[in-house]
Structures are given as structure tokens and as C-alpha cells.
Amino acid sequence: MPRMARAATTADAFNAVAEPRRRQILDALAGGERPVNDLVRLLGVTQPQVSKHLRVLREVGAVDVRDEGRQRLYRLNGEALKPIHDWVKEYERTWSERFELLDVVLDQLKQEEQGDDSGK
Amino acid sequence: MTVASSSNATVTLPTDEQILITREFAAPKDLVYKAFTTPELVKRWWHANRGEMTVAEIDLRVGGKWRYVMVADEGFEVGFHGEYLEVDPNERIVSTEVYEGLPAGVSDEEGGTVNTATFAETGGRTTLTLLVQAANKVSRDAIIDSGMEDGLQDALDLLEDVASSLA
Q: With an 8 Å Cβ cutoff, are B2 and A106 in contact?
């Protein structure tokens, strides 16, 4: 049951969001821009850990950062994560079309089983 | 004719290593199983309108091999093959799958998946469930390795929101 080959460029984003803590960060940022301290408090982990995850997310472009005064503010960049979304949708579309063809095959098998050969 | 079933396949990602595909068919499970495991029938649906299937080899027994090749409309050829690990007629098939276009250096074990197809019938209708398990090692244990916490699905739900906000 084949998978669709996934473009190498999107693999990074896949890896980036595969980690539970990083998904928590993305969830938090989905609600709006936040400073690191907010994320530290929300996730209940140390700042170095949060910074480490933010670095990975920034590398794949999943989050953007800007300085405001003495604060660094992070925000979600949905555009970078879109390849994942698109890949799943395309995968779903392939299987949907496959199964529509399977419906046709099954129709014929049912008719044959009922001894109705008129469709041949 | 077919009672229109839910025509869309449902795809979810239960864990980071799994893809789950579900679809209901308006036919009893022995027929769905037959359409799923008979080469000349597989050739009629597996291509998903994206090309022509030139090879459908199915040696349906434990340890038996399978191989599918499709020539896409664009001209390129894609091949997949694997081995049957479990064959429980009309109920369940477990098989390995390797995409023949894996990048150089990626072993079959790293790049392959273990797929479990389950056929469940209720009132003459069959729910087909395909669980695709990506694993570092191809082992049966990996298939049943559940109990993981939230998967990519969370990210997808999130992305659904994000994607709509991008429009």
C-alpha cells in the first residue's frame, strides 16, 4: 500500500514538528506572538530547552523572531508548515481516487456473484 | 449500482510513525479482500488514475513476495515491493513495503514500512483500515507499538487553522 514519496525539502519541517515539545510551542504560538519567558512558563521547562527547540523551528522557518526592546518575540509562520498539510491532503486524494476505482471493481464482483452476467 | 459510500478516504496520523487510512465500501468483506489481493483486479484500481499498472505480482502467503509497478502518465515508472508477514483470508494482511525509488544510502529497513490491512464487515458493508507503520527496523512488534502520546495529528489540526488563515 504505497506511500507517496515525500519531497526532501519538506522532511525538515516534518522532523521539526515531530517532537512533542516543539508542537507545544507551535500550539502556544498559534494563539499569537510570545516572548521566550511565556513559553518557558507555559511548557514548564528550562529556558535553554525552549531556546533549543525554538532554534530548530527557526531553522525550518516554522517560527519567526523579532526584537522589541529587550524582548525577543516569537511568532508562528504557517507558510513553512504548509508542505506537511499539503502532503497529507495529496496522500488522502490519491487514496480517495484509488478507492473510487475499487468501488467500480466491487460493483462488478457483486453482480457476478449474483449470477448477473449482463454487465459483461 | 453502488450505494454511494463516503467516497473520501480518511487519513490520520495516530503517532509520529503511523499513517492510518480508512474507507467504507458497499460490499461484503470477502469481495473487498478479493479485489485487494487478485492481480488483475488490483491493476484496475491501484493506479488511482495516475498511470497504468504494468506489474501486479501477488504471492499471497506468509513469506511470499509482492510487487507493483506503475508507469505514470508523465512517463516515469514507480515500483513498490514487499513481503507478506501475515495472511488471514478476508480478515487481515500484514506486509512490508519498500519504495523502489528510495534515495541512495537509505536501507529498505530504514525507508520501508509495515502495512496492516484490516477488513471489517457490518451489515454487508466493509470498513477497510490500512495502517502504515514506518519503522527503523521492520519488525512486527513495531506495528503494535502503540500507546504513544499525541502524534502529528495535533500539528495537522493546528495547520488546518493556519492554512485557512493563509487564504
A: yes
